Amino acid sequence: MLYYLAVGRTIVAMLSGMMTTKNKSLLAVLLVSLTGSAWAQLGRQPSVTMASVPLTTTPRATETQVPLDFRVGADFHINSNTPKSEFLIPTTLSIDVPTDIVLGRIAYPPGQDLKFPFSPDETLNVYSGDFTIKVAVHPLHSVVPGKYVMHGTLRYQACDNAQCFPPKTLPVSFEVKVVKEPPAPRHNPAQSPHAHN
Amino acid sequence: MSTPEVPAPNSGNPGLSNSGLSSPPPAPGGRNPLALVVAAVIIAGMLYFGFHAARRTGANGTTSTAKSSVAPDFTLESLDGKSVRLSDLRGKAVLLNFWATWCGPCKIEMPWFVELQNQYGPQGLQIIGVAMDESGKDDIAKFAKEMGVNYPVLLGKEAVGEAYGGVPALPETFFISRDGKIIDRIIGLKGREEIEDSIKKALETQPVTSQVEATPAPPVQAQK
Questions:
Q1: Which residues in chain B have their CB less than 8 angstroms from residue A14's CB?
Q2: What CATH number does the domain located at B75-214 have?
Q3: I want to staple A41 with a disulfide (CB 3.0 to 4.6 A). Which of A3, B32, B51, B223 is the partner?
Q4: What chain B residue is nearest to A139 in terms of C-alpha separation?
Q5: Distances in Å between the alpha carbon of B178 and those of B29, B88, B126, B146, B208?
Q6: How many angstroms away from the CA of B35 is the closest CA of chain A?
Q7: How far is B216 from chain A (nearest CA, A)?
Protein backbone atom coordinates (compact mmCIF):
# COMPACT_ATOMS: atom_id res chain seq x y z
CA MET A 1 0.00 0.00 0.00
CA LEU A 2 2.80 2.39 0.90
CA TYR A 3 4.25 1.62 -2.47
CA TYR A 4 1.19 2.88 -4.29
CA LEU A 5 0.86 5.88 -1.99
CA ALA A 6 4.39 6.79 -2.93
CA VAL A 7 3.47 6.55 -6.60
CA GLY A 8 0.49 8.80 -6.08
CA ARG A 9 2.42 11.36 -4.06
CA THR A 10 5.17 11.45 -6.62
CA ILE A 11 2.77 11.99 -9.49
CA VAL A 12 0.94 14.71 -7.58
CA ALA A 13 4.23 16.40 -6.74
CA MET A 14 5.33 16.22 -10.33
CA LEU A 15 2.08 17.55 -11.69
CA SER A 16 2.10 20.46 -9.31
CA GLY A 17 5.47 21.51 -10.60
CA MET A 18 7.24 20.71 -7.36
CA MET A 19 9.18 17.76 -8.58
CA THR A 20 12.62 17.56 -7.07
CA THR A 21 15.56 15.54 -8.26
CA LYS A 22 14.83 13.06 -5.49
CA ASN A 23 11.25 12.69 -6.69
CA LYS A 24 12.43 12.20 -10.22
CA SER A 25 14.73 9.40 -9.13
CA LEU A 26 11.95 7.78 -7.15
CA LEU A 27 9.63 8.07 -10.12
CA ALA A 28 12.17 6.43 -12.37
CA VAL A 29 12.55 3.49 -9.99
CA LEU A 30 8.78 3.10 -9.63
CA LEU A 31 8.26 3.35 -13.37
CA VAL A 32 10.79 0.64 -14.01
CA SER A 33 9.32 -1.65 -11.39
CA LEU A 34 5.72 -1.05 -12.44
CA THR A 35 6.53 -1.56 -16.08
CA GLY A 36 8.52 -4.65 -15.18
CA SER A 37 5.58 -6.10 -13.28
CA ALA A 38 3.23 -5.39 -16.14
CA TRP A 39 5.69 -6.86 -18.57
CA ALA A 40 6.05 -9.95 -16.41
CA GLN A 41 2.30 -10.45 -16.70
CA LEU A 42 2.38 -9.96 -20.43
CA GLY A 43 5.53 -12.04 -20.71
CA ARG A 44 3.68 -15.28 -20.15
CA GLN A 45 2.83 -15.26 -23.79
CA PRO A 46 5.37 -17.19 -25.82
CA SER A 47 7.50 -15.33 -28.30
CA VAL A 48 9.62 -16.42 -31.20
CA THR A 49 11.70 -13.74 -32.88
CA MET A 50 13.95 -13.68 -35.90
CA ALA A 51 17.30 -11.94 -35.92
CA SER A 52 18.17 -9.45 -38.59
CA VAL A 53 19.53 -11.26 -41.65
CA PRO A 54 22.62 -9.82 -43.32
CA LEU A 55 22.30 -9.24 -47.03
CA THR A 56 23.25 -12.41 -48.86
CA THR A 57 24.90 -12.11 -52.23
CA THR A 58 24.37 -14.92 -54.68
CA PRO A 59 25.44 -15.26 -58.30
CA ARG A 60 22.86 -16.27 -60.85
CA ALA A 61 22.64 -19.97 -61.61
CA THR A 62 24.11 -20.80 -58.22
CA GLU A 63 22.44 -22.15 -55.11
CA THR A 64 23.21 -20.24 -51.93
CA GLN A 65 22.15 -21.03 -48.38
CA VAL A 66 20.71 -18.27 -46.25
CA PRO A 67 20.76 -18.93 -42.50
CA LEU A 68 17.80 -17.57 -40.57
CA ASP A 69 18.34 -17.27 -36.83
CA PHE A 70 15.37 -17.59 -34.50
CA ARG A 71 15.05 -17.29 -30.75
CA VAL A 72 12.40 -18.90 -28.55
CA GLY A 73 11.54 -16.89 -25.44
CA ALA A 74 12.87 -18.06 -22.11
CA ASP A 75 10.92 -20.86 -20.39
CA PHE A 76 9.15 -21.81 -23.61
CA HIS A 77 9.79 -24.45 -26.24
CA ILE A 78 8.32 -25.17 -29.63
CA ASN A 79 8.08 -28.47 -31.45
CA SER A 80 10.88 -29.24 -33.85
CA ASN A 81 10.18 -29.83 -37.52
CA THR A 82 9.94 -33.54 -36.74
CA PRO A 83 8.02 -33.96 -33.49
CA LYS A 84 7.58 -37.46 -32.22
CA SER A 85 3.80 -37.53 -32.28
CA GLU A 86 1.46 -37.15 -35.21
CA PHE A 87 -0.72 -34.92 -33.05
CA LEU A 88 1.98 -32.36 -32.34
CA ILE A 89 2.31 -29.38 -34.66
CA PRO A 90 5.73 -29.19 -36.33
CA THR A 91 7.60 -25.96 -36.79
CA THR A 92 7.53 -25.14 -40.47
CA LEU A 93 8.93 -22.35 -42.59
CA SER A 94 7.31 -21.35 -45.84
CA ILE A 95 8.87 -18.80 -48.20
CA ASP A 96 7.46 -17.11 -51.27
CA VAL A 97 10.11 -16.44 -53.85
CA PRO A 98 10.02 -14.09 -56.83
CA THR A 99 9.70 -15.50 -60.31
CA ASP A 100 12.86 -17.14 -61.58
CA ILE A 101 14.32 -17.53 -58.12
CA VAL A 102 13.93 -21.16 -57.12
CA LEU A 103 13.53 -22.10 -53.50
CA GLY A 104 15.81 -25.00 -52.65
CA ARG A 105 15.81 -27.20 -49.60
CA ILE A 106 14.81 -25.77 -46.25
CA ALA A 107 17.18 -27.35 -43.73
CA TYR A 108 15.77 -27.55 -40.24
CA PRO A 109 18.10 -28.20 -37.33
CA PRO A 110 17.62 -31.36 -35.31
CA GLY A 111 15.56 -30.72 -32.20
CA GLN A 112 16.56 -31.53 -28.66
CA ASP A 113 15.05 -34.59 -27.02
CA LEU A 114 13.78 -33.28 -23.71
CA LYS A 115 11.50 -34.50 -20.96
CA PHE A 116 9.02 -32.15 -19.38
CA PRO A 117 6.92 -32.32 -16.22
CA PHE A 118 3.94 -33.10 -18.45
CA SER A 119 5.78 -35.85 -20.32
CA PRO A 120 7.78 -37.69 -17.67
CA ASP A 121 7.75 -40.96 -19.56
CA GLU A 122 8.52 -39.74 -23.05
CA THR A 123 10.83 -37.23 -24.64
CA LEU A 124 9.67 -34.51 -26.96
CA ASN A 125 11.75 -33.22 -29.84
CA VAL A 126 11.79 -29.46 -29.46
CA TYR A 127 13.55 -26.20 -30.18
CA SER A 128 14.31 -23.86 -27.31
CA GLY A 129 16.61 -20.90 -27.06
CA ASP A 130 18.31 -20.18 -30.39
CA PHE A 131 18.02 -22.23 -33.54
CA THR A 132 18.84 -21.71 -37.20
CA ILE A 133 16.95 -22.74 -40.31
CA LYS A 134 18.86 -22.65 -43.58
CA VAL A 135 17.05 -21.74 -46.76
CA ALA A 136 18.59 -22.47 -50.16
CA VAL A 137 17.86 -19.98 -52.93
CA HIS A 138 18.78 -20.49 -56.55
CA PRO A 139 18.38 -17.52 -58.91
CA LEU A 140 18.04 -18.66 -62.48
CA HIS A 141 20.09 -17.24 -65.31
CA SER A 142 17.15 -15.11 -66.40
CA VAL A 143 16.99 -13.05 -63.20
CA VAL A 144 17.92 -9.39 -63.51
CA PRO A 145 20.76 -8.65 -61.07
CA GLY A 146 19.64 -6.67 -58.05
CA LYS A 147 18.18 -6.98 -54.59
CA TYR A 148 15.17 -9.18 -53.96
CA VAL A 149 13.14 -9.52 -50.77
CA MET A 150 11.83 -12.95 -49.84
CA HIS A 151 8.78 -13.12 -47.62
CA GLY A 152 7.40 -16.02 -45.68
CA THR A 153 6.13 -17.29 -42.36
CA LEU A 154 7.34 -19.49 -39.57
CA ARG A 155 4.51 -21.53 -38.07
CA TYR A 156 5.10 -22.83 -34.56
CA GLN A 157 3.25 -24.00 -31.52
CA ALA A 158 4.73 -23.18 -28.13
CA CYS A 159 4.39 -24.60 -24.64
CA ASP A 160 5.95 -24.04 -21.27
CA ASN A 161 6.09 -26.60 -18.49
CA ALA A 162 2.39 -26.39 -17.67
CA GLN A 163 0.45 -25.09 -20.64
CA CYS A 164 0.43 -24.87 -24.40
CA PHE A 165 -0.48 -21.98 -26.64
CA PRO A 166 -2.34 -22.10 -29.95
CA PRO A 167 -0.26 -22.24 -33.13
CA LYS A 168 1.12 -18.90 -34.29
CA THR A 169 2.83 -17.59 -37.39
CA LEU A 170 5.81 -15.27 -37.42
CA PRO A 171 6.34 -13.14 -40.53
CA VAL A 172 9.76 -13.76 -42.01
CA SER A 173 11.67 -11.83 -44.63
CA PHE A 174 15.21 -11.53 -45.87
CA GLU A 175 17.01 -9.90 -48.74
CA VAL A 176 19.14 -11.50 -51.40
CA LYS A 177 21.40 -9.66 -53.80
CA VAL A 178 21.62 -11.42 -57.12
CA VAL A 179 24.74 -10.71 -59.16
CA LYS A 180 25.86 -11.88 -62.57
CA GLU A 181 27.40 -15.28 -62.62
CA PRO A 182 31.19 -15.31 -62.93
CA PRO A 183 32.39 -15.58 -66.52
CA ALA A 184 32.82 -19.12 -67.71
CA PRO A 185 36.42 -20.27 -68.10
CA ARG A 186 37.69 -19.40 -71.58
CA HIS A 187 37.71 -22.30 -73.90
CA ASN A 188 40.79 -22.23 -76.07
CA PRO A 189 40.03 -23.40 -79.57
CA ALA A 190 42.01 -26.31 -80.85
CA GLN A 191 45.15 -25.13 -82.47
CA SER A 192 46.75 -26.46 -85.55
CA PRO A 193 49.97 -28.32 -84.94
CA HIS A 194 51.36 -26.23 -87.77
CA ALA A 195 51.02 -23.18 -85.61
CA HIS A 196 53.84 -24.39 -83.41
CA ASN A 197 57.29 -24.11 -84.62
CA MET B 1 11.80 -12.52 -65.64
CA SER B 2 12.21 -10.94 -62.26
CA THR B 3 13.27 -7.42 -61.67
CA PRO B 4 14.77 -6.20 -58.44
CA GLU B 5 12.47 -5.07 -55.70
CA VAL B 6 13.50 -1.74 -54.29
CA PRO B 7 13.05 -1.98 -50.55
CA ALA B 8 11.47 0.84 -48.65
CA PRO B 9 13.83 2.74 -46.37
CA ASN B 10 12.67 0.78 -43.35
CA SER B 11 12.02 -2.48 -45.12
CA GLY B 12 13.62 -5.64 -43.92
CA ASN B 13 12.57 -8.05 -41.25
CA PRO B 14 9.22 -7.33 -39.80
CA GLY B 15 9.28 -7.03 -36.08
CA LEU B 16 12.84 -5.83 -36.13
CA SER B 17 12.56 -2.11 -36.28
CA ASN B 18 15.41 0.26 -36.60
CA SER B 19 13.61 2.89 -34.67
CA GLY B 20 16.17 2.67 -31.94
CA LEU B 21 19.01 3.56 -34.23
CA SER B 22 18.16 7.18 -34.59
CA SER B 23 15.35 9.39 -33.52
CA PRO B 24 14.68 12.95 -34.47
CA PRO B 25 15.21 15.55 -31.78
CA PRO B 26 12.01 16.75 -30.13
CA ALA B 27 10.43 19.61 -31.93
CA PRO B 28 10.67 22.95 -30.17
CA GLY B 29 7.51 23.46 -28.24
CA GLY B 30 6.71 19.72 -28.48
CA ARG B 31 5.32 17.50 -25.76
CA ASN B 32 6.48 17.95 -22.24
CA PRO B 33 8.72 14.99 -21.33
CA LEU B 34 7.23 14.93 -17.86
CA ALA B 35 3.77 14.47 -19.30
CA LEU B 36 5.06 11.51 -21.25
CA VAL B 37 6.50 10.04 -18.06
CA VAL B 38 3.17 10.50 -16.29
CA ALA B 39 1.40 8.80 -19.16
CA ALA B 40 3.89 5.94 -19.05
CA VAL B 41 3.35 5.49 -15.31
CA ILE B 42 -0.39 5.47 -15.69
CA ILE B 43 -0.29 3.01 -18.58
CA ALA B 44 2.12 0.75 -16.73
CA GLY B 45 -0.10 0.89 -13.67
CA MET B 46 -3.19 0.05 -15.69
CA LEU B 47 -1.40 -2.85 -17.31
CA TYR B 48 -0.27 -4.10 -13.94
CA PHE B 49 -3.66 -3.90 -12.29
CA GLY B 50 -5.51 -5.11 -15.36
CA PHE B 51 -3.46 -8.22 -15.76
CA HIS B 52 -3.38 -8.80 -12.04
CA ALA B 53 -7.14 -8.65 -11.85
CA ALA B 54 -7.62 -10.81 -14.91
CA ARG B 55 -5.20 -13.51 -13.95
CA ARG B 56 -5.19 -13.25 -10.18
CA THR B 57 -4.90 -16.69 -8.70
CA GLY B 58 -5.44 -17.93 -5.24
CA ALA B 59 -3.13 -20.10 -3.25
CA ASN B 60 -4.40 -23.19 -4.99
CA GLY B 61 -3.88 -21.80 -8.44
CA THR B 62 -7.53 -21.16 -9.14
CA THR B 63 -8.86 -17.83 -10.27
CA SER B 64 -10.95 -16.09 -7.71
CA THR B 65 -12.46 -13.62 -10.19
CA ALA B 66 -14.25 -16.37 -12.07
CA LYS B 67 -16.20 -17.54 -9.05
CA SER B 68 -19.96 -17.22 -8.81
CA SER B 69 -20.52 -16.01 -12.36
CA VAL B 70 -23.02 -17.90 -14.46
CA ALA B 71 -21.29 -20.25 -16.87
CA PRO B 72 -21.90 -19.02 -20.43
CA ASP B 73 -24.26 -21.41 -22.11
CA PHE B 74 -23.44 -23.03 -25.44
CA THR B 75 -24.45 -25.83 -27.73
CA LEU B 76 -21.68 -27.82 -29.39
CA GLU B 77 -21.49 -31.00 -31.41
CA SER B 78 -20.00 -34.05 -29.77
CA LEU B 79 -17.75 -36.57 -31.46
CA ASP B 80 -20.69 -38.89 -31.92
CA GLY B 81 -22.66 -36.19 -33.71
CA LYS B 82 -25.03 -35.20 -30.91
CA SER B 83 -25.72 -31.63 -29.88
CA VAL B 84 -24.81 -30.99 -26.28
CA ARG B 85 -26.14 -27.93 -24.49
CA LEU B 86 -24.40 -26.97 -21.28
CA SER B 87 -27.55 -25.74 -19.56
CA ASP B 88 -29.13 -29.15 -20.06
CA LEU B 89 -26.68 -30.40 -17.46
CA ARG B 90 -28.12 -28.22 -14.68
CA GLY B 91 -28.37 -30.27 -11.52
CA LYS B 92 -25.01 -31.88 -12.18
CA ALA B 93 -21.57 -30.66 -11.22
CA VAL B 94 -19.73 -30.02 -14.47
CA LEU B 95 -16.02 -30.06 -15.12
CA LEU B 96 -15.51 -28.21 -18.39
CA ASN B 97 -12.06 -28.90 -19.78
CA PHE B 98 -10.70 -26.99 -22.78
CA TRP B 99 -7.95 -29.00 -24.44
CA ALA B 100 -6.34 -29.83 -27.79
CA THR B 101 -4.60 -32.80 -29.34
CA TRP B 102 -1.37 -30.76 -29.66
CA CYS B 103 -1.34 -29.93 -25.96
CA GLY B 104 1.06 -32.13 -23.99
CA PRO B 105 -0.10 -31.04 -20.52
CA CYS B 106 -3.71 -31.79 -21.54
CA LYS B 107 -2.65 -35.36 -22.22
CA ILE B 108 -1.53 -35.77 -18.62
CA GLU B 109 -4.91 -34.71 -17.26
CA MET B 110 -7.04 -36.96 -19.41
CA PRO B 111 -6.40 -40.23 -17.56
CA TRP B 112 -7.19 -38.36 -14.34
CA PHE B 113 -10.48 -37.19 -15.80
CA VAL B 114 -11.31 -40.74 -16.84
CA GLU B 115 -10.74 -41.95 -13.27
CA LEU B 116 -12.56 -38.99 -11.72
CA GLN B 117 -15.57 -39.49 -14.01
CA ASN B 118 -15.74 -43.11 -12.88
CA GLN B 119 -15.30 -42.16 -9.24
CA TYR B 120 -17.63 -39.17 -8.98
CA GLY B 121 -20.02 -39.76 -11.85
CA PRO B 122 -22.51 -41.61 -9.62
CA GLN B 123 -22.56 -38.55 -7.32
CA GLY B 124 -23.51 -36.25 -10.16
CA LEU B 125 -20.25 -35.24 -11.83
CA GLN B 126 -20.22 -34.76 -15.58
CA ILE B 127 -16.90 -34.10 -17.23
CA ILE B 128 -17.03 -32.40 -20.62
CA GLY B 129 -14.03 -31.99 -22.88
CA VAL B 130 -14.01 -29.18 -25.43
CA ALA B 131 -11.40 -29.76 -28.13
CA MET B 132 -10.00 -26.47 -29.43
CA ASP B 133 -8.23 -28.09 -32.34
CA GLU B 134 -8.02 -26.79 -35.87
CA SER B 135 -7.62 -30.37 -36.98
CA GLY B 136 -10.57 -32.43 -38.00
CA LYS B 137 -13.04 -34.45 -36.06
CA ASP B 138 -11.36 -37.71 -37.04
CA ASP B 139 -8.04 -36.71 -35.49
CA ILE B 140 -9.74 -35.62 -32.31
CA ALA B 141 -11.73 -38.84 -32.16
CA LYS B 142 -8.62 -40.91 -32.74
CA PHE B 143 -6.78 -39.08 -29.98
CA ALA B 144 -9.68 -39.41 -27.55
CA LYS B 145 -9.94 -43.11 -28.30
CA GLU B 146 -6.23 -43.60 -27.69
CA MET B 147 -6.60 -41.84 -24.35
CA GLY B 148 -9.58 -44.00 -23.37
CA VAL B 149 -11.81 -40.98 -22.80
CA ASN B 150 -15.11 -41.97 -21.19
CA TYR B 151 -16.82 -38.57 -21.17
CA PRO B 152 -18.28 -36.45 -23.97
CA VAL B 153 -15.80 -34.59 -26.13
CA LEU B 154 -17.22 -31.59 -27.96
CA LEU B 155 -15.86 -29.87 -31.02
CA GLY B 156 -14.88 -26.42 -29.78
CA LYS B 157 -15.64 -23.13 -31.45
CA GLU B 158 -13.78 -19.89 -31.08
CA ALA B 159 -16.91 -18.11 -29.86
CA VAL B 160 -17.24 -20.52 -26.96
CA GLY B 161 -13.60 -19.99 -26.03
CA GLU B 162 -14.16 -16.24 -26.15
CA ALA B 163 -17.17 -16.58 -23.86
CA TYR B 164 -14.90 -18.30 -21.35
CA GLY B 165 -12.29 -15.57 -21.31
CA GLY B 166 -10.54 -16.37 -24.56
CA VAL B 167 -8.84 -19.54 -23.34
CA PRO B 168 -5.42 -18.18 -24.32
CA ALA B 169 -3.58 -21.30 -23.20
CA LEU B 170 -4.48 -24.92 -22.68
CA PRO B 171 -5.46 -26.78 -20.63
CA GLU B 172 -8.00 -24.59 -18.93
CA THR B 173 -10.66 -26.11 -16.73
CA PHE B 174 -13.82 -24.62 -15.29
CA PHE B 175 -15.78 -26.14 -12.43
CA ILE B 176 -19.48 -25.44 -12.65
CA SER B 177 -21.86 -25.86 -9.74
CA ARG B 178 -25.13 -27.74 -9.93
CA ASP B 179 -26.90 -24.39 -10.36
CA GLY B 180 -24.80 -23.44 -13.35
CA LYS B 181 -22.25 -21.09 -11.81
CA ILE B 182 -18.50 -21.15 -12.28
CA ILE B 183 -17.05 -21.85 -8.86
CA ASP B 184 -13.45 -22.54 -9.78
CA ARG B 185 -11.04 -22.36 -12.67
CA ILE B 186 -7.64 -23.93 -13.16
CA ILE B 187 -5.27 -22.63 -15.81
CA GLY B 188 -2.50 -24.91 -16.97
CA LEU B 189 -1.47 -28.26 -15.60
CA LYS B 190 -1.94 -28.59 -11.86
CA GLY B 191 -2.06 -31.61 -9.60
CA ARG B 192 -4.79 -34.21 -9.61
CA GLU B 193 -5.57 -33.34 -5.99
CA GLU B 194 -6.41 -29.75 -6.86
CA ILE B 195 -8.77 -30.90 -9.58
CA GLU B 196 -10.39 -33.37 -7.21
CA ASP B 197 -10.82 -30.70 -4.51
CA SER B 198 -12.61 -28.44 -6.95
CA ILE B 199 -14.82 -31.32 -8.09
CA LYS B 200 -15.83 -31.97 -4.49
CA LYS B 201 -16.73 -28.30 -4.05
CA ALA B 202 -18.87 -28.42 -7.17
CA LEU B 203 -20.60 -31.59 -5.99
CA GLU B 204 -21.43 -29.99 -2.64
CA THR B 205 -23.48 -27.26 -4.32
CA GLN B 206 -27.25 -27.42 -4.51
CA PRO B 207 -29.29 -27.30 -7.69
CA VAL B 208 -31.69 -24.39 -8.08
CA THR B 209 -35.33 -25.06 -7.35
CA SER B 210 -36.86 -21.79 -8.52
CA GLN B 211 -38.01 -21.77 -12.13
CA VAL B 212 -36.87 -18.18 -12.56
CA GLU B 213 -33.34 -18.90 -11.36
CA ALA B 214 -33.11 -22.02 -13.45
CA THR B 215 -33.58 -20.10 -16.68
CA PRO B 216 -30.26 -20.31 -18.49
CA ALA B 217 -28.60 -17.38 -20.19
CA PRO B 218 -28.92 -17.22 -23.98
CA PRO B 219 -26.49 -19.66 -25.54
CA VAL B 220 -23.30 -18.51 -27.14
CA GLN B 221 -23.60 -18.26 -30.89
CA ALA B 222 -21.01 -20.91 -31.56
CA GLN B 223 -19.89 -19.85 -34.99
CA LYS B 224 -16.22 -20.20 -35.68
A1: 34, 37-38
A2: 3.40.30.10
A3: B51
A4: B2
A5: 63, 11, 10, 30, 8
A6: 8
A7: 30
d(CA A145, CA A45): 42
CA proximity to B183, closest of B161, B160, B199? B199
Q: Give per-residue pLDDT as tens, A69-127.
A: 999 999 999 999 999 999 999 999 999 999 999 999 999 999 999 988 877 788 999 99
Residue-range domain boundaries for chain B: 9-55, 75-214
pLDDT band of A27, cuts 50, 70, 90: low
CA distance A128 to chain B (A): 16
> Can you give the pLDDT at residue B149?
97
**Nearest residue on chain A to B140, alpha-carbon basis:** A87
How far is B187 from B173, CA to CA, in rounded Å?
Answer: 6
Chain A residues with CB inside 8 Å of B2's CB?
A: 98-101, 142-144, 148
pLDDT digits (tens, 9 = 90+) for B7-63: 443 333 333 333 333 334 444 445 576 776 666 666 565 555 444 444 433 333 334
Say if B41 is an interface residue toward chain A (CB within 8 Å).
yes
pTM: 0.71
